[in-house]
Backbone:
């Protein structure tokens, strides 16, 4: 996809305003809360701190690209199953932080999961069920690998 | 015991799929063609008279469509749920009372232009002496922030039962202490946002994240001088509320701009603005005195409470009364005197926050009870249990009607069972301690007339294909009410949860449900939809009975089919009966209305929490190692959601106890970002976090359910405080527990 953007435009504004991808949320505009987390070439970034031009020739993954209603990403399924979603405002960002963790480390410990999502503030859940959900997926991946 | 097919099952939340897919629309995600962007000019002073507001440099700026000041506000021009004393905009010659007061509004073609334009508005302030603490406000000769409130007292309220002075004189053991609590900030990850427009019928539409749409419609209509039926308030998904979204912050401004420009107008607050604008948890100073006999019977409670209500009335009166009612807790204390005052200051307005004044009371009481138990030489759990009110007994607190069994002994048993042995092993440079706290939290506080708590309605409709829609103005803000209402309706109508659609938060679609606060919606709206669905069920069975030539009373609905209990006939599809009703002109739309049956507090329950902490003796840092919450929630409609409320509330409570403090200096918020105001992260949660549910059915709740969302905020902070006191062997009296104060306490003890 090709887009012309102003040099001062933030990545989050291009996603939300120009492309209508409102799944990415803004919670502070300062990189404090992580609600706007997206993946840039697979690495989690705060899209409020990234200029749109910095995404030039890079792959941007937002929550909209994670899964579809018929084919949920295992993390999305696990979040539902474990009660890891409450108000849902932080959820897209947390999902992407968890995805980048599992892509690099398919068998993280609970501590490693907590570190990976520590840039994503959640005011509702107390994080425990989020960590449960990510650990759930890690276990499934681990079991699949063992079976192969 | 009745078997339920849907109620009591842990199902994934009904709004979850859209949320994990990023499809859910929050207020900030809404947009319309021709939409304008709004920005408010907030006061730079917390206490000043406005000499001049000059917008002349702004009005001519390219892209600026409207610039409004106080002169442009029609109607009363003020708002507030209890007293309408907060100005929509502060005008020339008037006073600003906190840094969330606004002087002008700009609507522009783009966000950038709106932001730039407000900077060109010139304001001349005449500084007035500020009142920044409760002592400033109560000092002799202090100026009055509101001329009709002498002494800056917003409300003074007393509760007196028995002969507390006499009882304290005659008590064998008396303890006394003063506790101070912080100004807690909700810090929902979604800041306030709204989109307003006047539609083709001339109806003012306000779409915003709000916890009580009808109250917003009322407050906007009164403030701007239009009748309530010309205002529609609709709430999309809410990205966390916790009480912050119970009252107007920006919605009146958007309504005004939409009326003036006749175009859609949108605003979303920055985090800093959000910190400044919405009401906070009241900081309180509570001096408490408890007396007991030598054998451990509590005989008297005396307390003096002063709360910092901030610049306007907000919800200070009701928060103060809840605080007062919460003070005695689950204990049988025959002599009580509580003297409470809420005062005005030039700080941010204080208002609703999960627990609504109760957490401060529970903190003071449960900390003081630990002192008392230690003084008498009794185990803190045993001391509490031996003083707990018993079945059939009346608590001294006249507002509370004990209508369900006293489950505290069970709750406490489960707590100690889940907690295991007291920690003895400390790491190097560590002190360890354990603390407990008990509570009797409440829900559906129907004792206050005027703030809309005492009734709730909901509509349930079955369409001719057998699918069901529920209309309610309860708000889904993450706590799970959409799922609870779905489960209740699916249970009653014998349909799958996937066949039930819940439409929430729209004053033009659904009856008044009252505020989504006070842990009340599962209870009140759960009851309302149960009634509506029950009536609908009767009508459907009647029609089915006619069709099957069987008495309706012998029919059941299960899995979307209606058939005789005895299996004598094959039955009929529910959808088929719905279609028959449609053909015959039989209404399948029902409204349920639930009203508390007496003037007293309808709901109460029991809860206990336990914390194990480690204190670093070099830094004074407190780490919570284990947190256990045991809660009588009544029938858990969705246990997965109940557990989530407990975990989330426990961690929010830990923040309140250890790190959260909205610091204000001269009325200015000094911690207006999420790096300065410290909410817990995933790295801060206790390694062991346990929630135990006790399900003692409520005689009046839907399927025996009770309210629960706020309750955990009460007993967790004092459990942590008591654990730290246990670890360091000294009294600590202030939230959040500051490492320096912990170090000082350790030193004092050494």
Residues:
């Amino acid at each position: 996809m090709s887009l012309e953007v102003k040099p001062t435009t933030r990545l989050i504004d291009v996603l939300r305003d120009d492309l209508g991808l409102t799944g990415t949320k803004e919670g502070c505009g300062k990189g404090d809360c992580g609600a706007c987390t997206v993946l840039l070439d697979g690495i989690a970034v705060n899209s409020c701190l990234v200029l749109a031009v910095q995404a030039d020739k890079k792959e941007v993954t937002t929550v909209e690209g994670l899964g579809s209603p018929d084919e949920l990403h295992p993390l999305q399924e696990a979040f539902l199953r474990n009660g890891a979603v409450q108000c849902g405002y932080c959820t897209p960002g947390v999902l992407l932080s968890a995805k980048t963790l599992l892509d690099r480390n398919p068998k993280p410990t609970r501590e490693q999961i907590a570190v990976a999502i520590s840039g994503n503030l959640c005011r509702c859940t107390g994080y425990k069920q989020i960590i449960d959900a990510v650990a759930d997926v890690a276990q499934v991946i681990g079991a699949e690998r063992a079976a192969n | 015991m009745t078997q339920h097919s849907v109620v009591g099952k842990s199902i994934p939340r009904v709004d979850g799929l859209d949320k994990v897919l990023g499809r859910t629309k929050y207020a900030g995600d809404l947009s319309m063609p021709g939409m304008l962007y709004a920005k408010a000019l907030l006061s730079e002073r917390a206490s000043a008279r406005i000499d001049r507001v000059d917008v002349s440099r702004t009005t001519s700026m390219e892209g600026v469509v409207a610039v409004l000041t106080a002169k442009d506000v029609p109607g009363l021009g003020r708002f507030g749920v209890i007293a309408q004393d907060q100005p929509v905009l502060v005008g020339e010659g008037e006073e600003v009372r906190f840094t969330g007061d606004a002087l002008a509004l700009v609507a522009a073609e783009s966000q950038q232009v709106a932001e730039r334009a407000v900077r060109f508005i010139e304001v001349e302030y005449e500084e007035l002496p500020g009142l920044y603490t409760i002592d400033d406000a109560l000092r002799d000769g202090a100026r009055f922030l509101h001329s009709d409130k002498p002494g800056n007292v917003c409300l003074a309220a007393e509760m007196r039962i028995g002969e507390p002075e006499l009882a304290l004189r005659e008590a064998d053991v008396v303890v006394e202490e003063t506790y101070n609590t912080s100004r807690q900030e909700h810090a929902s990850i979604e800041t306030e946002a709204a989109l307003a427009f006047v539609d083709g019928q001339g109806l003012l539409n306000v779409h915003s994240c709000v916890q009580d749409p009808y109250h917003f419609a009322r407050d906007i209509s009164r403030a701007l001088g239009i009748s309530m039926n010309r205002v529609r308030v609709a709430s999309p998904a809410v990205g966390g509320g916790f009480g912050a979204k119970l009252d107007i912050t920006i919605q009146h401004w958007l309504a005004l701009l939409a009326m003036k420009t006749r175009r859609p107008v949108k605003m979303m607050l920055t985090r800093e603005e959000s910190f400044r604008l919405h009401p906070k948890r009241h900081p309180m100073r509570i001096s408490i005195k408890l007396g007991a006999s030598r054998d451990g019977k509590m005989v008297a409670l005396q307390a003096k409470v002063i709360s910092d209500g901030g610049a306007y009335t907000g919800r200070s009166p009701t928060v103060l009364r809840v605080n007062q009612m919460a003070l005695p807790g689950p204990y049988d204390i025959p002599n009580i005197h509580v003297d409470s005052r809420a005062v005005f200051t030039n700080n941010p307005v204080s208002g609703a926050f999960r627990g609504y004044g109760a957490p401060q009371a529970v903190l003071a009481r449960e900390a003081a009870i630990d002192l008392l138990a230690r003084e008498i030489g009794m185990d803190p759990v045993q001391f509490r249990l031996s003083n707990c009110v018993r079945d059939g007994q009346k608590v001294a607190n006249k507002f509370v009607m004990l209508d369900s069994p006293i489950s505290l002994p069970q709750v406490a048993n489960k707590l100690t069972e889940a907690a295991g042995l007291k920690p003895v092993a400390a790491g190097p440079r560590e002190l360890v301690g354990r603390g407990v706290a008990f509570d009797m939290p409440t829900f559906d506080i129907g004792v206050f007339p005027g703030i809309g708590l005492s009734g709730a309605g909901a509509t349930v409709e079955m369409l001719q294909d057998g699918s069901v829609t529920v209309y309610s103005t309860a708000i889904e803000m993450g706590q799970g009410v959409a799922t609870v209402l779905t489960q209740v309706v699916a249970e009653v109508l014998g349909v799958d949860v996937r066949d039930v659609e819940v439409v929430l938060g729209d004053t033009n679609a659904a009856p008044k449900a009252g505020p989504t606060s006070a842990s009340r919606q599962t209870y009140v709206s759960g009851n309302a939809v149960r009634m509506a669905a029950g009536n609908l069920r009767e009508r459907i069975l009647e029609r089915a009975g006619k069709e099957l030539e069987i008495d309706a009373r012998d029919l059941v609905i299960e899995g979307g089919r209606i058939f005789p209990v005895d299996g004598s006939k094959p039955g009929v599809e529910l959808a088929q009966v719905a279609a028959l009703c449609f053909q015959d002109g039989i209404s399948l739309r029902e409204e349920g209305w639930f009203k508390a049956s007496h003037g007293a507090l309808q709901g109460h329950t029991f809860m206990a929490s336990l914390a194990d902490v480690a204190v670093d003796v070099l830094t004074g840092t407190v780490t919570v190692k284990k947190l256990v919450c045991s809660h009588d929630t009544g029938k858990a409609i969705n246990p997965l959601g109940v557990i989530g409320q407990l975990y989330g509330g426990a961690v929010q409570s830990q923040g309140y106890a250890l790190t959260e403090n909205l610091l204000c200096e001269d009325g200015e918020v000094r911690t207006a970002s999420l790096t300065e105001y410290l909410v817990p992260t995933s790295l801060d949660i206790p390694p062991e976090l346990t929630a135990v549910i006790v399900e003692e059915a409520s005689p009046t709740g839907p399927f025996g359910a009770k309210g629960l969302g706020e309750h955990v905020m009460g007993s967790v902070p004092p459990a942590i405080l008591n654990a730290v006191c246990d670890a360091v062997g000294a009294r600590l009296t202030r939230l959040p527990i500051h490492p320096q104060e912990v170090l000082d306490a350790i030193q004092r003890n050494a």
Q: What stands out?
A: Strands of chain A lie at 37-40, 43-46, 60-61. Chain A has five helices and three strands. The longest strand of chain A covers residues 37-40.
